[in-house]
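Hi R.,

As promised on Friday, here is the backbone we talked about, encoded as structure tokens. Could you run it through your design pipeline when you get a chance and send me back a sequence?
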């Protein structure tokens, strides 16, 4: 048989906003056709319950990998492979006129063979209105406070200038910091201080200066451009003794990404 992931939601306990988000997620999952975007295999209701069947992700999310294998942060090679898949899926969404608005490590899923899938489609918003693509949008959903560290200044500001796909790029940068450092920038800050820090200048990113050197990377090079090599890396990690964290240095290209 085939392993699958099953998500069951009690529809009677969902708010109207959550129901709209679930509907949006289901519709867009079937609309998008991209190798790096999670697709639902089946969606159905049974009484008050909504069942969503999707591919099984053996390594769960990038956030789970951080907690389990890389508490001090990942290597630049591994981060690059993970973000390559996520950004490929995100670029596809942007080309179709959608803003993701929920980019973070826990929404980047990894299958047993190392393929990367972007999930978290319930907050997507379309830039297309009446056949015209808008330069900015002004929809400001009620995000959970746990999501705030990843959100861009223009989305948090909620002013007349609105925001666009660039807000997702900001979230990618925060996610890169998250993967490199092992924890999320701004997470320990009071919410008001975090907002002021975001609005006044460059992103606060408390990470170590070092990362794994190329010679010490535990990731195989991807030949296809699709398989990230994460599966092989995780297999080695799980079957070996506790690995010592080697010294590391981030490349100028990685710093420029942030």
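Update: got your reply. Pasting your designed sequence below so it's all in one thread:
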């Amino acid at each position: 048989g085939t392993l699958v992931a099953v998500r069951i939601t009690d529809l009677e306990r969902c708010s109207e906003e959550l129901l709209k988000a679930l509907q949006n997620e289901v519709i867009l999952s079937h609309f998008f056709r991209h190798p790096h975007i999670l697709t639902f295999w089946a969606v159905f209701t049974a009484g008050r319950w909504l069942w969503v069947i999707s591919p099984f992700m053996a390594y769960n999310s990038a956030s789970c990998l951080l907690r389990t294998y890389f508490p001090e942060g990942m290597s630049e090679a591994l981060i690059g492979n993970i973000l390559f898949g996520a950004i490929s899926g995100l670029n596809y969404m942007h080309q179709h006129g959608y803003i993701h608005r929920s980019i973070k490590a826990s929404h980047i899923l990894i299958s047993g063979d190392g393929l990367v899938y972007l999930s978290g489609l319930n907050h997507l918003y379309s830039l297309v209105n009446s056949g015209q693509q808008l330069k900015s949008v002004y929809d400001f959903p009620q995000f959970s406070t746990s999501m705030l560290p990843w959100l861009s200044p223009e989305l948090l500001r909620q002013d007349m200038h609105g925001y666009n796909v660039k807000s997702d790029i900001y979230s990618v940068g925060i996610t890169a910091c998250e993967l490199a450092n092992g924890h999320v920038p701004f997470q320990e800050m009071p919410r008001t201080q975090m907002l002021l820090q975001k609005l006044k200048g460059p992103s606060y990113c408390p990470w170590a200066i070092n990362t794994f050197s190329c010679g010490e990377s535990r990731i195989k090079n991807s030949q296809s451009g699709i398989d990230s090599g994460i599966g092989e890396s995780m297999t080695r990690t799980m079957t070996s003794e506790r690995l010592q964290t080697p010294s590391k240095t981030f490349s100028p290209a990685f710093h420029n990404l942030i």
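One thing I noticed while checking it: The longest helix spans residues 76-95.

Thanks again,
M.
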